[in-house]
Amino acid sequence: MKAYILENKHRFLAELMELLRIPSVSADPKYKDSVLMTAEFVKKSLEEAGVKHTEICPTKGYPIVYGEHIIDPNKPTVLVYGHYDVQPPDPLDLWTSPPFEPVIKDDKIYARGACDDKGQMFMHIKAFEAMIKKELLTCNVKFMIEGEEEVGSAHLGEFIINNKQKLKADIILISDTAMIANDVPSIDTGLRGLSYIEVEVIGPNRDLHSGVYGGAVANPINVLCEMIASLKDKDRKITIPGFYEDVQELSLDERELLAAAPFDLTEYKKDLGIVSVDGEAHFTTPERASIRPTLDVNGIWGGYIGEGAKTVLPSKAYAKISMRLVPNQKSEKITRLFKEHFEKMAPKSVEVKVRPHHGGEPVVTPTDSIGYQAAFNAMKQAFGKDPVPTRGGGSIPIVALFEKELGLKSILMGFGLDTDAIHSPNEHFGVFNFLKGIETITYFYQHYYEMSTKAKA
Ligand code: BES
Ligand code: MN
Ligand code: MN
């Protein structure tokens, strides 16, 4: 298997670069044709890899690329999930090479989507190709590659509810997360949920002269800042009443187990160019970024932001706020608690509007399942080391829905690194990670087949 991957390395990379060249930004309608072209590209890649049946399944939004390769109905079936859409590339001027003109520098592929998730999704297609060519495919495989993950997977839920039979499988395999380091393999055993909200604070009926009216009329930006600041106390605890009600507190044993994963605070700060970290009191940095809920402003605007100075008391102020959720918080409840609290605390001098965006539920994966154990063995075989269980801080909202609607657990076997700059300028993915990922995935199928068959007997 290793030999096949090595022999075909240059072609694999060239094909991935071709995929990365299509700007499949799902958030911005101006990229619509490109997003659709990307779906076609993925379908063609599945066909060329040898997937027997492929189709493009339309939705009310961007289509889902589906592939199915049944070798024997009695053998286990792996459902691969990934996404072909990417985040907007902005801010463009901070990229050292254009986001949709992929280049390999220092053994890393630089492009929007290189890691999240085109590069990682493509590993699965190439692993499939390798297994077909070497006649080593041991499981049935289904592919479900969507084009709306970065905008909340709005239509995937309906698709899985309407296609339960088609998607019947034994396990879901996803590479859309990170591992600790190239010499510290890890597997995510959970993801955070998400509650995303936009707020609007409305003051006077027009922008005002900040000298004529300033001091006498509420400034919506000032008010918004005060309101946001009050959402956390000095211990960085979130002050929304009921916010922590359902938070699953980890036992000291569980926290110790997670703390076994190596973490270098000095390196962490250096990579981010910060002098000090900041977060909820009594928790470590890795804990703050995985097993604890958060509240962050993602963007804030209003008033005059053009060149020079304009003396103006703005009529309106806006912010986009995200809350990352942990088991057993529910995104709907948190969104409601936020809305009630935010509306209640607004001073009489302004009007407040709260608009919920997408949300998603947190997930945890058991480590005693065959799927997890197969991923563990595959990583161990590929990296020569036991992988460490970790909890991911990001969100893949659809994973909770897979569990609810299909009754299937997902294995989060990701090969990115936190430093790959996903969603940031200069996103990249290591050539080592891409090739190692392909290799590991092929081992996963082998182990999963062997362990499932043993468990059945
Ligand atoms: N692949 C990421 C999620 C991720 C990244 C999980 C790193 C764990 C580690 C995914 O594409 C993503 O960005 N998800 C969004 C949520 C979505 C609703 C926009 C996120 O986490 O912000
Ligand atoms: Mn992703
Ligand atoms: Mn993403």
- Which fold name is given in CATH as the topology of the largest domain? Aminopeptidase
Structural class: alpha/beta
Q: CATH homologous superfamily of the largest domain? A: Zn peptidases
Main sheet strand line-up: 1-2-6-3-7-19
Structural features, described:
The protein has 457 residues and is α/β, with parallel strands linked by helices. Helices cover 34% and strands 21% of the residues. The protein has 12 helices and 21 strands. It has a 6-stranded mixed beta sheet, with helices on both faces. The mean pLDDT is 97. Bound molecules: ligand BES and manganese (II) ion (MN) (2 copies). Residues 87, 116, 150, 422-423 line the site of one manganese (II) ion.
Keywords:
about 450 residues; alpha/beta; Aminopeptidase; Alpha-Beta Plaits; 2 domains; 6-stranded mixed sheet; 4-stranded antiparallel sheet; 21 strands; binds ligand BES; binds manganese (II) ion
